[in-house]
């Protein structure tokens, strides 16, 4: 296995080549139709730069060579070695995988939109990035799926430690940190064995579905660009047709009031059992806003910001998640709104209400939308709030039936009213 180790070691890429490589990236900034992995625009990144920055792993070319990420290369190389050692001839398996990557390198270059003009040497290094990072991802997904797995080496113990799982999950869903899906799929198919029958789509979904809710949804999109795109398909459902912009289109008319304001206007909130977090509906007859539960924890902001940035850059995808973020921004103005929605079990909140309020209020900053998926819902809610009876009923219940003294006063008032009526009848 000495030769095999040497072949794996040569995939630990030369850092000195990074400067030349990044210069070539900047020189060729043409974005083609097949571009699906983007550098985040500054208008979006400035809202929270850390939400777009890898913490430990560079995946793909955009962040390769950054000094603080180079320590991870040894773990990726170790995962590659462990992968090929499962086969009778590890050296032949690495050669086979190199050929697989070489066959798709041109198509993969187009996915990044800035690699079309690189020279032969840079393309060779690009192949190494795809092979090393691609194999690391599929091996990590396999290992994670092996419940009851006893780590066989230090790399596995480190990667699957409680401290590192949130870190690599953060890095796996950054728009600038993606490997094309067809590269992962080809590497996965060439390294499957008889005991590994689970589709790659299912392995990937297992990593992120709990970020949004506890229920798992099975999907099989016709086309997947990368893991972040798979997450977009997983959450990207809306029950309404979008309202497209025109010269008379005023987005402010389609905003929704805050949760506490809606409560004062008589609107009720109900958590619904839906595995699609975007499936928000308004029952106009009962005045009930039905919202699926959203799990809020440290990874939530990262994945939402990267999904929104992906929508803003990738035109084939409509801004469904961006519209969802705009709706949440409307519902949440203050920490009191977060508390209200948490009490209704709509937010399963692991964070401080003030922090959640702050990030939701900034989540759609810097975005542009030419359509709104919740336009009709917002109009229906605002129309309902204009009615007098729901507002009066909500005011009455909130002020007289939520406090002990209010309940007592109403009981006494009813008793006095009844006695007065009886006295009148008796006379």
UniProtKB/TrEMBL annotation:
The chain crosses the membrane at residues 405-425. Keywords: Membrane, Transmembrane, Transmembrane helix. InterPro entries: DUF247_pln. The keyword Membrane applies. It comes from the Eukaryota. This is Uncharacterized protein. It comes from Rubroshorea leprosula. The lineage of its organism: Eukaryota, Viridiplantae, Streptophyta, Embryophyta, Tracheophyta.
């Amino acid at each position: 296995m000495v030769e095999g180790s040497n072949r794996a070691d040569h995939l630990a890429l030369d850092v000195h080549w990074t400067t030349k490589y990044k210069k070539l990236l900047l020189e060729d900034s043409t974005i083609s139709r097949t571009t699906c992995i983007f550098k985040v625009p500054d208008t979006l990144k400035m809202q929270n730069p850390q939400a777009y920055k890898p913490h430990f792993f560079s995946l793909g070319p955009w962040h390769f060579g950054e000094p603080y990420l180079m320590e991870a290369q040894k773990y990726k190389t170790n995962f590659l070695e462990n992968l090929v050692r499962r086969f009778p001839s590890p050296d032949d398996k690495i050669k086979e995988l190199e050929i697989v990557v070489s066959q798709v390198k041109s198509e993969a270059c187009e996915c990044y939109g800035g690699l079309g003009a690189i020279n032969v040497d840079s393309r060779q290094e690009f192949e190494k990035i795809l092979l090393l990072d691609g194999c690391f991802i599929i091996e990590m997904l396999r290992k994670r799926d092996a419940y009851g797995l006893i780590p066989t080496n230090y790399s596995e113990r480190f990667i699957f430690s409680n401290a590192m799982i949130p870190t690599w999950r953060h890095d796996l869903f950054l728009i600038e940190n993606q490997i094309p899906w067809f590269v992962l799929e080809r590497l996965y198919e060439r390294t499957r064995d008889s005991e590994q029958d689970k589709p790659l789509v299912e392995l990937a979904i297992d990593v992120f579905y709990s970020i949004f809710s506890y229920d798992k949804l099975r999907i099989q999109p016709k086309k997947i660009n990368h893991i972040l795109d798979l997450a977009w398909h997983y959450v990207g459902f809306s029950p309404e047709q979008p309202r497209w912009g025109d010269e008379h289109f005023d987005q402010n008319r389609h905003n929704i009031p805050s949760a506490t304001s809606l409560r004062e206007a008589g609107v009720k909130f109900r958590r619904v059992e839906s595995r699609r977090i975007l499936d928000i509906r308004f029952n106009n007859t009962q005045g009930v806003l039905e919202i699926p539960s959203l799990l809020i924890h440290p990874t939530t902001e990262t994945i939402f910001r990267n999904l929104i940035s992906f929508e803003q850059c990738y035109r084939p995808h409509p801004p469904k998640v961006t519209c969802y973020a705009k709706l949440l921004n409307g519902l949440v103005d203050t920490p009191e709104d977060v508390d209200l929605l948490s009490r209704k079990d709509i937010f399963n909140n692991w964070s401080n209400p003030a922090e959640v309020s702050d990030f939701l209020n900034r989540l759609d900053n810097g975005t542009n939308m030419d359509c709104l998926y919740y336009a009709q819902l917002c109009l229906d809610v605002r129309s309902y709030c204009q009615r007098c009876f729901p507002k009066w009923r909500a005011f009455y219940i909130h002020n007289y039936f939520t406090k002990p003294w209010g309940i007592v006063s109403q009981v006494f008032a009813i008793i006095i009213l009844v006695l007065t009526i009886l006295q009148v009848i008796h006379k």
